[in-house]
Amino acid sequence: MDGCFTIPDWRSQFARLEGAYAPSTMKSYYADVQVFVDWCAGEGQPPFPADVATVCAFLEAQGKEKAASTVRRRLYAIRKAHRLLRLPDPTQDEDINLSLRRVRRARPIRPKQAKGLTRDFLDAFIAGEPDTPWGLRNKAMLSLGYELLSRRSELVALKTDDIEVRPDGTLQVIVRRSKADPFGQGRLAFTSRATATRIADWLAWRGPDISPLFCPIYQDHPIDRDLSTTTVKRLIKTAATRAGLDPSVVGEFSGHSLRVGAAQDLLKKGFDTAAIMRAGGWKSVNVLSRYLEQAEHNVWA
């Protein structure tokens, strides 16, 4: 009991979604609904079913601390919870839209864009990697991630069977699942010979009996499990530091920098938006446009 009301077992209802949504989405659902439940407890209001006024108050309170995108995501979680519990959904009311507009207008924050890991950075980062098993893996990951324009989740999800050597010495790679492709239809991508060579060098050391294309290394031995997505971010920042970049510049790189930098380079080489979207698997022109902003002012340089 919380006050004079009983909270339904919403977690067991969300368990019905397992397998239908990505693990990251499920993690966000659980976290966001819990924030709402805790907030309602503090306000003495029932979270399920919530009324329109309660949800509006929650959204505007969250907007004082969180980005508008986070507030919107939490609204979606509240909506999903009510639907799973088969309760009246308060989130479709017009007052909800007005509250979201207030949140956006009160904190007009421009989305922060990761620094692009463009070709000049890529070459410097690869050159700085040591002649160790970790260096072999990191060179291959940097090179492949750049040429696939991959998200960090896509890069660590690749399996050895997802790559195929072509007659010309390059690689064909199938990116089987991504944020924009939740049902795993996949997209084909291709690499240079240089990247194919780096992958071959890594696999020659790693051996044939490992399922993930890239794996952890423990005491000079490969471990048959996936890397975490944070490994990509750490790899990039470490490579940037090793390349001698100023700490303030190092801090601008993220796990998304490979994708951003490759897209910017393609634009400067004259590829149009449609070609870049195909290469990177983008579905939204607006998202790609943010990636390309920093490159566009250099097109005529």
General description of the model:
With 301 residues, this protein is mainly alpha-helical. The chain contains 14 helices and 5 strands. It has helices at 10-14, 23-43, 52-63, 68-84, 94-106, 119-127, 133-148, 152-157, 193-206, 229-242, 247-250, 257-268, 273-280, 285-296; strands spanning 163-165, 171-175, 187-190, 217-218, 221-222. The strands form 2 sheets. A 3-stranded antiparallel beta sheet has the order 1-2-3. It has a two-stranded antiparallel sheet with strand order 4-5. A hairpin with a 2-residue loop joins strand 4 (217-218) and strand 5.
Shape assignment: elongated
Low-confidence regions: none
Report the structural category.
mainly alpha
Strand order of the largest sheet: 1-2-3
Instruction: Determine Rg (CA atoms, Å).
Output: 23 Å
Q: How large is the count of helical segments?
A: 14
Question: Could you tell me the number of beta strands?
Answer: 5
Mean pLDDT: 89
Largest sheet: 3 strands, antiparallel
In which range does the helix fraction lie? 40-55%
Please state the oligomeric state of the protein chains shown. Answer: single chain
Distance between the termini: 66 Å
Strand content: 5-15%
